[in-house]
Every structure is written in C-alpha cells, then in structure tokens.
Design goal:
Length: 568
C-alpha cells in the first residue's frame, strides 16, 4: 500500500497535466462547433427603447433602484421566437397586449433566503401580441432590478449564446475545482507522514474548490444544467463564508518554516509555529464559525437571509487579506519561508491581481465581452493555485524521499540483518513501552537447541541457515498473534498483544509441527529443535521483568525436558 501511495504521488503532476490537456481539447472542439453569437439576422436586442408609464424613454442597461414598469412595441418579426433574458434577484411579470403571460416570483425556504441568484428566461410570445409590458421588482429594495441580454430570438440560440459566453470561464472554474480535489486527495495520502505539507495540501485544495464553485455562479452554466439557480447561489454564499480561513491557514503554515531549506535553516532560529499566527488562525476560525452559525440561525428564523449576511463574509475576507499580508511580511523578516516558495506565492498573487485589473479595464471598454466580466480574475486565481500546488507537489516528492531514507535507517536500526526479524534494540524499546502504556500481553521465550554443535561441526554458514529457518518457523507460527524478536545468537522472544491465552498453545504446536516438517523435507545435518516457555503479563498486577524471567525459566525447563537435550 505504501509503495502504491508513493508511486501515485510521484506521477500526480503528470496526471494533472494530462487531465488539463484532455479537458481543454474537448472544450475547444465543442466550442468551435457552436454557432456564432450575436447574429443580428436571427435576433433583436431589446435592452433599449422601453417606455415608462409617464411616457419617458428607459434603458435596462442603467436603471435606478425601485420597481419599474416598462412597455415596448413589438414591431419586429416574432414568429418562432421568444422574449429571452438573464435576470438576477428580480421578480418578473410579462404581459402581452395587457394580458399576463409569464410570472417569475419563486417562493423559497427560509434557509435559502429570498435571493435566487441568476437565471435565464425564455418567454413565448403570442402571435397576436402588439406590445409587451414588463413589471420588474427587485428582491432587495436597495438594489436596482437586474436584467441583461434581453432580446427577441430563438430560445435554442439564446441558450447556446449563454453557453458560449460562459463556457471559457466555466472551464477555468472546473480546472480550479479539479486541481483542488487533487490537492485534497494528496493531503489524505500524506497523512501518515505527519508533516506540515499535509496542512498546505488541505488548505490550498479547499481554497481552490471554494473559489472554483463561487466563481462558477456567474457563468450560468450550472444554473442551466441543474435548473436550480437558488441552490447554486446558496452554495456560492457558503463558499464566501468559509473561503476567508483557507489562505491564512496556508500562509501561516508555510511561513512557520514548513518549506525552509536546510541551508536557510542554519541562519534561522524561528523554525517553529509563530504564536501570533496561531492566535490569528483561532480568531479567524471563530469569526468564520460565528458567521456561519448566525447566518443559518437568522435565515431559518426569517430575520434575514444569506444575502443579507453577505457583508459579514466580506469583512472576514478583508481581515483574512490583512492577516495574509502580515504573515508574509513577518516570514520574510524572520526568514522562515523558503525564497523559492515566497517568489512562487508573490508571482501567483501578482497573476491574480493582474487578471483583476485586466477585467476592470476590459469591462469599461467592452461590457458585453463574450468572455464575461471576470475571466481574467478566474485565470489569475487559477495560475496562483496551480503554481502553489505544483510547488507543494515538488516539495512533497522531496519530503517523500527524506521519509523513505528515514524509514530505511529506522528499519536498519531495528531489524536483525540475518533473519529480518525485529532485533534486540526493537525488543528493548517494546519492553519499555508495554508497562508504560499498561498493555496486556504474553511473553514467549524461545531458544534453538544444538546451535553450538551446528556451528562447531558444520560451520557458521550452516549455523546461519539453521538460525534463518528457525526464525521463519517462529515468525510464521505467531503470524497475526504477536511480533517475533531475535535477542541473541540463538535466543528469540515473541510478544503477543493481539490474542488471548487460547491462541498461545496452538502457535507453539505449529512450531513443533513446522520444525518436524522442515527436518523431514530438508534433512539438515542437525534437526531443528526449539525450546520455549511463556507467561502472561497483566498490567497493574505483575512486574514486567518478573514475567520475562518466568517465561525464560519455563523455556529452560522445556529445554531440559526435551529427550536427550542438555542446556547449551
């Protein structure tokens, strides 16, 4: 299992690259097959030219707060076309020739709240319709109604245009979530290593998943796919509640010396957890938890909803940003963060910042870009997460090599080179652990008869063979019951913790049977004979040393009792 995990971790970066290439290729092929958006021959934009009840002209591109009622003559070809639009947190009533034809005012559970987020509408137009009236009501009085992409066109083309516009950003969101899932999986595979890198995998992975889900909301792909825009919006609000904690957790752990090189560690005496960062994490965790619990509580009571609690999530995010900047500056000052890792973080954060600036500029130049209003921000965040993730994977490989070396050294220190059983040092460590932890066990002392004769008459090579096969018999006989130790040249001890008394005698009979079977088939010059004796250790009642002596005495008595055998 360990070999599989190590192999998995060494190829994970390549798998990520392959997945990215495949997904982007599929999306590119599908994207190229879509019809061009905005074909004026098949659709009529309807954002402008509306008339208010007082006769004034209105545009839906820039509206003020409050409910509005607007009308528009249908002086265009409406055959086989629908009135299509995208809305956000706005109730809609559509009337044709003064007759209500469409109403969108979803009733939702208190927990979900008033907000339904964003949704698309495709309203059938009666063949006799001469004019249309829209009555629009914002779910939040402080916000204006939100209607965009209003047009008269074929509903299939409208949906395709929405897909086409949202797909590039949605692909980025999917990649962010997939990368986050990979990071979380690597965190789980790294749990046994017990190093700080595990926390980094979980933090950056969870951050990626939350950011990916949150940013997918504006693409409208999930809303169309699920038909439940209110659930998608609720998920994005939950993501905003929890997202504040993850970057601070990541930076606090990284800045505690988790990635500092051995060379840099010689010049730093701060390779420990910073008490200030620990306090920051506890405070932020408390704020996030309180925000979540209060949001759920007031939503269920109907006092407000997740949308109304959004400012508290924004406050926590601002606090998290301040904490993050402080931790990075503090780590630089105390040199508790590896320079390469610091550069990676700065470049990644710079990419996210540049993406945001590009979006702001592009939105002012072309608000209706097919890439959406936040494609650059998503791309920048994706670059940041991937850069940090790849660094973590490289660091994980380095730590895996170090752990492998440490395990090998430990195995060499605690393993008998001839028999591959645990050695005397391992036994002494276990000998101190059992009484300290109050563990119940059985002690079995064993000794090879006539080993001195084998060495003197047939040589040490034959003696080693005798020891190796005796060790194999002992190990196999007690498999699943206890651990065998070689404590001397011909001396062995088994400590059985995972059984009761009824399992000891059958194991000893297996020793006798296996020895006889070996002697019969292999015909060694001196038959293998193993003397043994055992005693039970009951914590709180027995002294461990006395139990060991009792088992040794019983083994000695067994050795003497064997026909024709005298103590070596």
């Amino acid at each position: 299992m360990k070999k599989f995990i190590r192999y998995y971790n060494t190829v994970i970066a390549d798998l990520i690259s392959i997945i990215m290439v495949v997904i982007f290729t599929i999306i590119a092929v599908q994207y190229s097959k879509m019809p061009a958006a905005g074909n004026s021959d098949s659709g009529f934009p309807f954002m402008d030219g509306w008339q208010a009840p007082d006769g004034s002209k209105m545009s839906l591109i820039d509206v003020k707060t409050g409910d509005i009622t607007i009308s528009h003559n249908l002086d265009v070809n409406t055959l086989n076309k629908q009135l299509c639009m995208v809305s956000a947190d706005t109730e809609i009533i559509a009337e044709f020739n003064g007759i209500e034809t469409y109403r969108y005012a979803p009733e939702q559970h208190n927990l979900i709240g008033v907000s339904y987020g964003m949704d698309i509408h495709m309203i059938n137009i009666p063949s006799s319709a001469k004019y249309v009236t829209l009555k629009l009501h914002s779910l939040y009085p402080q916000n204006p109604v939100y209607i965009r992409d209003l047009s008269i066109e074929d509903d299939g083309k409208f949906v395709m245009d929405v897909y086409r516009k949202g797909l590039p950003s949605f692909v980025i969101c999917v990649m962010i979530v997939l990368f986050g899932l990979v990071m979380v999986i690597m965190g789980f595979t790294n749990l046994r290593n017990d190093d700080n890198n595990t926390v980094n995998f979980f933090s950056i992975g969870t951050l990626a998943i939350l950011v990916g889900i949150w940013s997918a909301n504006d693409t409208l792909i999930l809303q169309i796919f699920t038909g439940r825009p209110e659930i998608i919006k609720f998920m994005t609000y939950l993501c905003l509640i929890f997202v504040a904690y993850m970057p601070v957790s990541f930076i606090a752990n990284a800045a505690a010396g988790a990635h500092i090189s051995s060379e840099e560690s010689k010049h730093s005496d701060k390779i420990t957890n910073n008490p200030v960062s620990d306090i920051m994490l506890k405070i932020l965790l408390a704020l996030v938890t309180i925000n979540f619990l209060v949001t759920i509580f007031v939503s269920l009571l109907g006092i407000t909803d997740v949308h109304g609690m959004l400012p508290f999530s924004h406050i926590n995010i601002i606090i998290a940003m301040i904490m993050t900047v402080y931790l990075i500056i503090n780590a630089c000052r105390h040199k508790t963060i590896e320079k390469r890792f610091l550069v990676t973080i700065i470049i990644g954060m710079g990419a996210a910042l540049i993406g945001t600036i590009v979006d702001l500029i592009r939105f002012n130049l072309n608000p209706n870009s097919t890439l959406g209003s936040s494609f650059g921000t998503r791309s920048g965040v994706f670059v940041f997460i991937v850069m940090v993730g790849i660094h973590l994977m490289h660091e994980h490989k380095r730590l895996a090599v170090e752990h492998g070396r440490a395990e090998l050294m430990q195995k060499m220190a605690y393993t008998d080179g001839l028999t591959e059983l645990a050695n005397r040092a391992a036994y002494h460590e276990k000998e101190g652990e059992i009484p300290a932890q109050g563990k119940h066990c059985f002690i079995v002392q064993l000794d090879i008869n006539f080993l001195k004769k084998v060495n003197d008459v047939y040589g040490h090579a034959e003696g080693d063979k005798h020891i190796i096969n005796s060790a194999r018999i002992i190990r196999d006989s007690f498999e699943g019951i206890g651990t065998a130790y070689r404590t001397g040249g011909d001396e062995f001890v088994v400590i059985a913790e995972d059984c009761d008394e009824s399992a000891i005698e059958p194991a000893l009979r297996r020793i006798d049977a296996s020895s006889a079977a070996y002697n019969e088939t292999e015909h060694p010059p001196v038959p293998i004979q193993l003397a043994y004796g055992w005693a039970e250790y009951k914590p709180g009642e027995d002294e461990f040393e006395e139990v060991v002596k009792l088992a040794d005495k019983r083994m000695y008595d067994n050795k003497v009792a064997m026909k024709g055998v005298r103590p070596d």
